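Saturday, quiet lab. Running sequence design on the structure tokens for the scaffold JK sent over.
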């Protein structure tokens, strides 16, 4: 069964990353109540760099909760377990922490149908230097690129409302391009 375990939002704020003051909204925090979903995303959520996040095709970012064990171990391997071994949902910058839906199950064009909202899969997330800062070590973006544990962006097909704990149905699209294949193609392009 597919379920939203947690919903997170954030407003953009300035943080120090690699000695520079940078605007970011990667530090998402849980939302307790139902959240309105509009064409450009969730109420209360912002994106600092609209050239790579947000907009109609990247309105909502979903991430499989099953991957959190990988990131906890990666942080321990980087010597960060003494700082924080819990990694709360939203730590990877996602709006929706999902259960039961991995990248290998998802194709561009698939639709996540909720009771009061529909979201269409558009593309995988690409890691960046802000992800390194959020995870607390410089190898995080590289680990995402190598592992393929990227999550995926969603466009709002039918605005409405979402609530943590709610289940959803995956409606197959054309199944022409899988999220793992799209991610590999994006990572290959960056490595050339």
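Result came back. Writing it out in full:
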């Amino acid at each position: 069964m597919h379920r939203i375990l947690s919903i997170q939002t954030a407003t953009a704020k300035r943080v120090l990353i690699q000695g520079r003051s940078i605007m970011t909204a990667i530090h998402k925090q849980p939302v307790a109540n139902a959240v309105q979903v509009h064409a450009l995303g969730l109420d209360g959520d912002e994106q600092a760099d609209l050239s790579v996040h947000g907009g109609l095709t990247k309105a909502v970012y979903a991430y499989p909760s099953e991957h959190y064990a990988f990131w906890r171990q990666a942080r321990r391997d980087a010597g960060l377990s003494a700082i924080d071994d819990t990694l709360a949902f939203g730590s990877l910058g996602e709006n929706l922490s999902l259960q039961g839906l991995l990248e290998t199950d998802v194709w561009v064009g698939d639709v996540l149908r909720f009771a009061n909202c529909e979201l269409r899969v558009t593309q995988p997330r690409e890691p960046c230097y802000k992800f390194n800062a959020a995870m607390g070590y410089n190898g995080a973006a590289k680990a995402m690129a190598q592992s393929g544990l990227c999550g995926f962006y969603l466009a709002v097909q039918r605005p409405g409302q979402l609530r943590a704990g709610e289940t959803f149905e995956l409606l197959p699209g054309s199944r022409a391009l899988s999220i793992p294949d799209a991610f590999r193609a994006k990572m290959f392009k960056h490595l050339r």
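Notes for JK: The chain has one domain: 2-191. Residues 2-191 form a domain with the M1 Pyruvate Kinase; Domain 3 fold (CATH 2.40.33.20). Ask whether to fix the surface positions before the next round.
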